[in-house]
Design brief:
It is built from eleven helices and 13 strands. The protein is α/β, with parallel strands linked by helices. It has two domains: 60 residues, DNA polymerase, domain 1 (Orthogonal Bundle); 286 residues, Aldolase class I (TIM Barrel), CATH 3.20.20.
Length: 374
C-alpha cells in the first residue's frame, strides 16, 4: 500500500473575506454557526488590528482559527516592486491574482500621511496630460483589491492597530489609476468599510474621491458615500476641456458645475476641490483664471493648482513658476484658496498623472513594431 501523501490546500479555492461587508461576512460564514459577537471579533481583527492571517487572531478559539484557515483567506496584495523617492514618497506596484498590476502611492507629510489608491487597472478617460490615461482599461478592481491596497500599505508602514493617535496613514485619496465613479459599487463598498467605526475607522472628512466628471454618478457619491469630492477640471471652457479631458464631450462643463452645486454634502466646511493641472500656454493665462473664478461663483470650493508632471512622450510643458503663482494670486484675490501642489515622487514616476503599471509599459515595449535600420 502506498503511503498517503499530504496535499497542500488549494489557496485559489479559498474565499477571500477581505472586501465583504458585515452582512456578506455573516452569510459567508453561516456554515460555521458563529455567534454575532464572534463575527464582530473577526471583523475587528481584520480591520482594526490588521491581522494578516487567522493564526494571529488570538481572541478566537484555536479550533475556529484552524477551521477558518482551511476554508478562507485574508487576501493581501503582493508587491512586485517598491520604490522610495528621495522625498520619502513610496510607490508600490501590486500584482493581482490574474496577473494584472496596479500602482499605489503613499505620500508622507509633516502632519499627515496620504495614500493614493487605484480603482481600475488602466483607464478609459484618455486625458491628454495624464500618463495613466494612455493605458487601456483592463478591468475594474474588486472591493477586496481596493481595500487590499490600504491594508498592505498599512502592513508596510507598520501602522496597526488602525485607531491610533500616531497613525501614519491618515488620509485616503481615490486619485490613483482609473475613474472611481466608473467602478462605483466596489469603491463604495471599500470606502464604507474604511470609514466604519468597527473597521479602519477613517473619518469621511479624511477621504477624497476624485472624478473627471461622470456627472450622473456625482450625486450618488455624495448621498451614498459622503466623502470629500474633487473634480479633475483643468479647463474653463468646453473647447479646451474637450481637447484635454475627452469625457467633457459627453458631460460638458455646464452640466458638471451644476452637479457640483447640487452635491449633497456641500457647505463651507466641506468644500469641493477643483484640480487644475497647469499646462503652459494651454490653460494658464490670466483670462483663464478670471473665467475660473466666475465659473465657480457661489460654490464653496478651493483650487488645487498642479504643476504638470512630465512623462515620456507627453505633448505638454509645465507652466513656469511665475505663471503658476500669477494664476494663484488671481484666484486668491477672488476669494478662493489656491494652494500650489508641491510635486512629490517625480523621480520614481509617482507624481500626479504619472502612474502607469509596469505590465502595460512592458506589454507596449514587447508589442511595438520593430523599426528597420536604414
Amino acid at each position: 500500500m502506498m503511503d498517503s501523501i499530504a496535499i497542500a490546500p488549494d489557496q485559489t479555492a479559498k474565499t477571500n473575506l477581505i472586501g465583504l461587508d458585515l452582512a456578506e461576512l455573516e452569510e459567508t460564514l453561516a456554515p460555521l454557526n458563529l455567534r454575532s459577537f464572534r463575527l464582530g471579533q473577526l471583523w475587528q481583527q481584520m480591520y482594526r488590528l490588521g491581522a494578516p492571517d487567522f493564526a494571529s487572531m488570538t481572541t478566537l478559539a484555536k479550533t475556529l482559527r484552524v477551521d477558518l484557515a482551511e476554508r478562507f483567506s485574508l487576501g493581501r496584495l503582493e508587491a512586485s516592486t517598491t520604490e522610495v523617492s528621495k522625498d520619502g514618497t513610496t510607490k508600490w506596484l501590486f500584482k493581482l491574482e490574474d496577473g494584472s498590476q496596479v500602482e499605489t502611492v503613499y505620500i508622507p507629510e509633516k502632519d499627515r500621511g496620504t495614500l493614493c489608491v487605484s480603482s481600475q487597472v488602466g483607464c478609459t478617460l484618455n486625458c491628454r496630460f495624464c500618463h495613466t490615461g494612455t493605458q487601456m482599461l483592463v478591468r475594474n478592481l474588486t472591493a477586496a483589491e481596493i481595500l487590499g491596497q490600504i491594508l498592505t500599505a498599512k502592513d508596510a508602514l507598520n501602522d496597526w492597530p488602525a485607531p491610533r493617535p500616531d497613525r501614519k496613514l491618515t488620509n485616503i485619496v481615490m486619485m490613483g489609476m482609473g475613474e472611481p465613479l466608473y467602478n462605483f459599487e466596489n469603491v463604495k463598498k471599500a470606502l464604507l468599510t474604511a470609514m466604519s467605526d468597527t473597521g479602519l475607522g477613517l473619518s469621511r472628512r479624511r477621504i477624497t474621491l476624485s472624478t473627471a466628471g461622470v456627472v450622473p454618478m456625482i450625486e450618488r457619491a455624495g448621498s451614498e458615500i459622503g466623502v470629500n469630492l474633487a473634480i479633475s477640471l483643468h479647463a474653463t471652457n468646453d473647447e479646451i476641456r474637450d481637447r484635454i479631458v475627452p469625457i467633457n464631450r459627453k458631460y460638458p462643463i455646464e452640466q458638471l458645475i451644476q452637479a457640483c452645486r447640487d452635491y449633497p454634502t456641500l457647505n463651507n466646511a466641506r468644500r469641493i476641490t477643483f484640480e487644475y493641472v497647469m499646462l503652459k500656454d494651454v490653460n494658464d493665462l490670466d483670462e483663464h483664471a478670471h473665467a475660473l473664478a466666475r465659473m465657480l461663483k457661489d460654490i464653496p470650493s478651493k483650487i488645487n493648482l498642479i504643476p504638470f508632471n512630465k512623462w515620456p512622450g507627453a505633448e505638454f510643458e509645465r507652466s513656469t513658476d511665475e505663471r503658476i503663482q500669477r494664476f494663484a494670486n488671481i484666484m486668491m484675490d477672488a476669494g478662493y484658496p489656491s494652494p500650489v501642489r508641491t510635486p512629490r515622487g517625480e523621480d520614481i514616476q509617482a507624481a500626479c498623472g504619472q502612474l502607469k503599471s509596469a505590465t502595460e509599459r512592458k506589454r507596449r515595449t514587447k508589442t511595438a513594431p520593430a523599426v528597420a535600420a536604414d
